[in-house]
Amino acid sequence: MFEIERWNLMTNLNNKAILNPGNVCSKCLQKSKEHQLNIIHIGEMGYGSGFDSWSTEIHLCDKCLAETNLDWWDLEVVTDCNGFEAYKYDKEIFEYADNLPLASRELFYNHYSTDNYKMDAQDWIDYELELLPHEKCKDYGLYSPAETTAYKERFPICFYVSIRVFPDSSSSSRCMFGAFGDKEGNTYADTMTNACYGCEMFRIREDRIPIIYENRYRSEGLNVK
C-alpha cells in the first residue's frame, strides 16, 4: 500500500472509532438523544444462522429505519428441513450491516457483539483497512497484512512449491515448509498461512511447477499460468 493511500485512510474521519456509540445512528452516523434511536437487538441463534452463538445490536434513527425493509427487524425465525433455525432475513441483515460505514460495522461485529473475541475498536477498524501493525496483529492472534501479502505474492512463484496428486485423483499444492494452495499452485482465496512471511528459503521458480504423484513416486512438469 502506498504511503499516501495509508495516510488518507488513517486521516479519514469515517475510519475513526465512534465515541459514545449509544447515541449515534449506525447508518447516517448522526448523533441523537439515545431514547430517539431505534435499538434493534439481534439475539443469538444456533447452527444454520449467521448469528450462531452470538448476538449484536444496530441503532437506527427514524429516517434510516424507514429506509429499510421493516420486516427484517421482526426477526422472524424459520426452521429448515434439518430442524436448524435461522432468521428469515439472515442474509438481508448481514448485507445491510456489511454496507454500513466501517465504524458502524465495528459496532455490529465487535463492540455490540457478544462473541468472546474482542478487539479495541480502533484496532478492529485498522485491521479491516490493513493498517494494523504486524506486532498488534500477532497480539490478537490474527494474520497480519504483511503475512497475507507474502502468501499471495510468494507462494505461486516459489521454487519449493509442488502439486501433489493423491490416489483418489484429488490434488493440492504445498511446499516443504508448511505453505499450501489449490490444485493449480495458486493461493486459496479464503485460507491463509504465515509460512511464506519471512521465509529465508524463498526462491523464484524459473521452470514449470512439478507434479508429484503420491501413489507413484514420480514427477512431471506442468505449465501453470
Poorly predicted sequence stretches spanning 5 or more consecutive residues? 217-225
Q: How many individual β-strands? A: 9
If you compute it from the alpha carbons, what radius of gyration comes out, rounded to the nearest whole angstrom? 23 Å
Number of H- or I-type helical stretches = 7
Counted up, domains total 2
Describe what you observe in this structure.
This protein is an alpha+beta fold and 225 residues long. It has 7 helices and 9 strands, in the order αββαββαααααβββββ. The chain folds into 2 domains: 3-142, no CATH class; 148-222, no CATH class. Helix 4 crosses helix 5 (121-128).
Top keywords for this entry?
225 residues; alpha+beta; two-stranded antiparallel sheet; 7 helices; 25% helix
List the helices and strands and how they pair.
Elements: H1 3-11, E1 38-42, E2 56-60, H2 62-66, E3 77-79, E4 85-87, H3 90-98, H4 102-111, H5 121-128, H6 134-139, H7 145-154, E5 161-165, E6 171-175, E7 180-181, E8 209-213, E9 218-222
Parallel strand pairs: 5-8
Antiparallel strand pairs: 1-2, 3-4, 5-6, 6-7, 8-9
Helix pairs in contact: 4-5
Structure at a glance:
The protein has helices spanning 3-11, 62-66, 90-98, 102-111, 121-128, 134-139, 145-154; strands at residues 38-42, 56-60, 77-79, 85-87, 161-165, 171-175, 180-181, 209-213, 218-222.
